[in-house]
Hints:
Elements: E1 4-6, E2 9-15, H1 17-34, E3 41-46, H2 50-60, E4 66-76, E5 79-88, E6 98-106, H3 110-120, E7 126-134, E8 147-151, E9 157-158, E10 174-177
Parallel strand pairs: 3-4, 3-6, 6-7, 7-8
Antiparallel strand pairs: 1-2, 2-10, 4-5, 9-10
Magnesium ion binds near residues 49 and 103.
Amino acid sequence: MKDITIKGLTFVPYLSREDIAKQVERVAAEVKRDCVTDSPIFVCVLKGAFMFAADLYRAIDMPKSEIAFIRYKSYSGTESTGEMNKILGLNDDVTGREVIIIEDIVDTGLTAHTLRSDIEAMHPMSVKMATLLYKPESLKHGKAPEYVGIEIPPKFIVGYGLDFDERARGLKEIYVLKKED
Ligand code: IMP
Ligand code: MG
């Protein structure tokens, strides 16, 4: 794994494909173990969670489950804007259903908290969240996610679905913004 430069910022290797795959398998096993129905609905939060959701959903392998997609945006560049824009809503009926939100990363928790409240207002049986990455020191809104792949310090990362200004989502590994010396 080599350093990469995007729009003048350098990112260094942080998590390998193996590191990610191992945690995806573990989270999948935990989610599956805890499901109380055989037909939960998984809600993938676009765009960032698409790659994690694809791998997690396959690993969970529950033939009667469903997957849906929703889009929220709170980030601009490398900073959270503190405002939530709902871009693509949830059309699927979640009433009385077991809902598991699939997120790429929980940073301030604003996206996670807003999503939970919006879905809870639709009267599901339960709402839980599975996130690949979690920055516990940055949490300002709501509660910690029920399922976490990897806890990380409050640094800016890219790859495996996560972007810097829409770039770098296709990287198979995760990279962290290099500290200026
Ligand atoms: P929050 O609402 O502050 O928790 O931020 C959540 C959203 O911001 C995530 O779903 C990501 O889309 C984005 N985000 C947060 N931290 C990072 C990061 O380190 N790299 C890329 N995107 C991030
Ligand atoms: Mg996201």
